[in-house]
Amino acid sequence: MTTKPKFKTIDLVMVPLFVALMAIGANVTSFLVIGGVPITLQALFAIMAGALLGSKLGATSMIVYLLVGLVGAPIFAQFKGGLSTLVSPTFGFLLSFILIAFVAGKIVEKSSIASLKTFLIASYTGLVITYVLGTNYMYFAYTTIAQAPEGFTYGMAWGWMIAPLIKDIIVAAIGAVICERVYHATRKNAAKYTVAS
Fold this sequence. Notes:
Layout: H1 9-27, E1 33-34, E2 37-38, H2 42-53, H3 55-70, H4 91-110, H5 116-144, H6 154-160, H7 162-196
Helix pairs in contact: 1-2, 1-3, 2-3, 2-4, 2-5, 2-7, 3-4, 4-5, 5-7
């Protein structure tokens, strides 16, 4: 009795591809820092991973990204890596990428049409998740395990997120458009290949 392989060859290519994209997204703009929070494109690529690879494979790629960084590869924001990241106030954002990839993938998978509206919903749902989880974790970390800035409050934590949020709202819309086009183009090509073979 033969068992169906869990991963196809294309899956083994796409997972490291999104790990690489996350590493690029973590550092291409991370020289911009607001209140200890680097400005990155990671949320965009995490959402795209879920939307294009599906919930399970998208989340898997984010888990691999997290593990590679935790073992020491400098692929987190500002070229950081290692177990010390576990006590970083921004670690909650890294954890959220796994969930947003899974949720974004589920939203697309549940859609019968996978229209631009579907990808916009997936993108903005992902943003809500990463901001809620990441910001609350950051506040908790600053008040328990990290040294908080003087006068630090819950409102200050959210205030730091305003600039990144404005950027992410715009970038998420662009990402949704890209995802919708790539999603349908790849499925059209896959259908042609299936018919030809």
